């Protein structure tokens, strides 16, 4: 990989030279000597009242929090909190696994608890439409998620397997060679999953159909409140956030791909732009079956998101707890993207972060990538953390998508001779 380059080049962050092992956090806790005895029972009452008012645990996150602020800074990935509450340096992968568990707990404090997966549940596949787009076949379908919900999605079948699938039972189709697969998550827009088919009215978002043309099995679900999911009821679904519902749905997509006989369950990746960009990160963090994540215009640390104004993250489709429990204060939020990106290690992460993206500040991304890079170096895979910085606004241009596809081909071990995206250019 080349050295970091501001001009749109794919770069790998190797932060070993920063000698992260020498960075430490020293927890300083002030102690005051208690009086030998209390001279009045009123002092006892006042002392007890003061203790009750002063100590505030804002949320159970796997690590103690005082006055709403986590003990460990989200931007310091060199330490973890031991079982006895002390802060210790991360010196091994076992140490990192403890910090990663604390990161997951922090994310769940904001998103809600991840339900235990029911991998044996019947998908109850309903195919509603079967069309051909060139050599690619697209099945519009719904699958069961939980006891009462059905997830609308498109399943793209590339040339070579398209003719083998019987819509009456997609689990019977065989293939001489199992293919890699991609979960393609769409950005914000009424068209939902069809945006990633190039039908959303904006260029640069058609990565589902392009990857299918390159030979990948691709699944593109609707996110709640978009597409065929437009009337989704967040208030009655039993989830603490739309974000967690999205994670559950997208994990269900991984379940489906893993059971298709023509898919190699060990070669599954995720890609998304904007809304789909951070949903791809969330999926990768909570599902380690996903071997690669590509996030276009999907993230920056919370302090760098519109100057720390988290209002945009608090609608029902995202994380209302950031408002209701954590007061729209980035200092109180129990996780941040420094940690989520590091939690993807050692799997490949590609961040497409344009220089002029008004949603997710490139300065925040550049600040966070080397921090996560310390964890990738601990794993011995610094080159699997990749930053691409096109000179554009909130977009996913053709050349940049091609760079991302090349990384996907490498990581998922797919020999693709096609080097031109389906639509050639973005207008």
From TrEMBL:
Chain intervals with Basic and acidic residues compositional bias: 16-28
Residue ranges occupied by any AB hydrolase-1 domain in the UniProt entry: 210-396
Ranges in coiled-coil conformation: none
GO molecular function: carboxylic ester hydrolase activity
Keywords, ordered alphabetically: Hydrolase
Pfam families: Abhydrolase_6
PANTHER family, alphabetized: DIENELACTONE HYDROLASE DOMAIN-CONTAINING PROTEIN-RELATED, POLYKETIDE TRANSFERASE AF380
Protein name listed in UniProt: Alpha/beta hydrolase family protein
């Amino acid at each position: 990989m080349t050295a970091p380059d501001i001009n749109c080049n794919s770069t790998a962050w190797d932060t070993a030279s920063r000698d992260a092992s020498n960075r430490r956090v020293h927890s300083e806790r002030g102690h005051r000597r208690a009086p030998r005895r209390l001279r009045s029972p009123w002092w006892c009452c006042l002392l007890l009242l003061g203790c009750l008012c002063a100590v505030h645990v804002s949320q159970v996150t796997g690590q103690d929090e005082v006055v709403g602020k986590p003990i460990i800074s989200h931007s310091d990935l060199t330490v973890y909190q031991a079982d006895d509450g002390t802060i210790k340096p991360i010196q091994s992968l076992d140490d990192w696994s403890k910090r990663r568990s604390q990161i997951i707990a922090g994310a769940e404090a904001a998103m809600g608890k991840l339900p235990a997966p029911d991998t044996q549940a019947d998908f109850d596949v309903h195919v509603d439409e079967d069309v051909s787009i060139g050599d690619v076949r697209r099945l519009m379908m719904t699958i069961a998620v939980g006891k009462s919900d059905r997830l609308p999605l498109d399943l793209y079948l590339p040339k070579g397997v398209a003719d083998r699938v019987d819509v009456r039972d997609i689990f019977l189709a065989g293939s001489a060679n199992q293919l890699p697969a991609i979960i393609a998550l769409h950005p914000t827009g009424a068209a939902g999953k069809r945006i990633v088919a190039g039908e959303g009215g904006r260029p640069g978002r058609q990565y589902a159909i392009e990857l299918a043309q390159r030979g990948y099995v691709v699944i593109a679900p609707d996110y709640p409140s978009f597409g065929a999911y437009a009337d989704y009821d967040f208030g009655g679904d039993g989830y603490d956030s739309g974000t967690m519902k999205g994670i559950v749905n997208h994990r269900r997509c991984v379940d489906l791909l893993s059971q298709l006989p023509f898919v190699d369950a060990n070669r599954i990746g995720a890609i998304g732009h904007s809304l789909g960009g951070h949903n791809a990160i969330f999926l990768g963090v909570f599902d380690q079956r996903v071997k690669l994540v590509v996030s276009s215009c999907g993230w920056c640390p919370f302090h760098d998101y519109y100057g720390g104004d988290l209002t945009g993250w608090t609608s029902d489709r995202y994380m209302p707890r950031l408002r209701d429990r954590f007061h729209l204060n980035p200092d109180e939020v129990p996780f941040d993207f420094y940690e989520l990106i590091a939690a993807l290690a050692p799997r490949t992460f590609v961040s497409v972060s344009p220089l002029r993206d008004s949603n997710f500040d490139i300065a925040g991304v550049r600040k966070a990538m080397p921090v996560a890079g310390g964890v990738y170096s601990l794993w011995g895979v610094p080159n699997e953390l990749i930053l691409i910085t096109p000179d554009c606004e909130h977009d996913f241009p053709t050349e940049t998508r091609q760079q991302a596809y090349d990384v996907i081909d490498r990581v998922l071990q797919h020999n693709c001779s096609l080097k031109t995206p389906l639509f050639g250019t973005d207008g």
